[in-house]
Write a structure and sequence with these properties.
By secondary structure, the protein is an all-beta fold. It has two domains: about 80 residues, no CATH class; about 110 residues, Domain of unknown function (DUF427) (Metal Binding Protein, Guanine Nucleotide Exchange Factor, Chain A, Beta Complex), CATH 2.170.150.40. It contains no helices and 19 strands.
């Protein structure tokens, strides 16, 4: 999205919000609002919102926005939405690849293979994943960390234990990804801010 441009479109789903066990938003006349640098947001006819903080949607007279944290839970139809509304133009493409991935930490090699899965996700840098059988699992242990992605699902994390050293959250995997990201199930990727990652993905273009 260019700077200072907003894009609003009809969102043909019933959206509800619940707070304190009470429905505070219930609308079938929803707008999905896209703005640069932000996830999408809902806008509702003012009459569909009651008993929760809201503010006018400046680009849609008669509509209001509700802060995500103002409600306890959000639903599209009968499916709960966590984190923020999904962008219908967001894609996660997972392609079998022969791009090489080598990962090192504290003098040990965790993986070195050209049998990879290249993941291309809208607005993010490409990333390589590998099957668990190709990873030195004897050097990894489960972490208590979990994160949630509205497009891929819940990720569990792994620490590296090299001798007496423990390096936190060096890798993650999606054990039960959403259907659109099913090829990621059980594959592992690595955090290049915590380990040394060598990969032959194309460099970002200079703009």
């Amino acid at each position: 999205m260019p700077d200072r441009v907003s894009y609003l479109e009809p969102f043909r789903r019933r959206v509800r919000a619940v707070k304190g066990g009470r429905t505070v938003v219930d609308s079938e006349q929803v707008l999905l609002v896209h703005r640069p640098g932000r996830p999408p947001a809902y806008a509702f006819p003012a009459g569909d919102v009651q008993g929760v903080d809201s503010g006018p949607e400046v680009d849609a007279p008669g509509y209001v926005g509700v802060p995500w944290d103002a409600a306890d839970a959000w639903y599209e139809e009968e499916e709960r939405v966590i984190g923020h509304p999904r962008n219908p133009y967001h894609r996660v493409d997972s392609l079998r690849s022969t791009r090489r991935l080598r990962v090192e930490v504290a003098g040990a090699t965790l993986v070195d293979t050209s049998e990879t899965l290249a993941v291309f996700e809208t607005a993010l840098e490409p990333r390589l994943y590998v099957e668990r059988r190709l990873v030195r699992l004897d050097l990894l242990e489960a972490s208590s960390t979990k994160t949630y992605c509205p497009y891929k699902g819940t990720a569990r994390y792994w620490n590296a234990r090299i001798g007496a050293d423990v390096i936190q959250d060096v890798a993650w995997s999606y054990e039960d990804p959403f259907p659109e990201s099913l090829p990621l199930a059980g594959f592992v990727s690595f955090d290049d801010s915590r380990v040394t990652v060598h990969q032959d993905l194309p460099a970002a273009p200079e703009v």
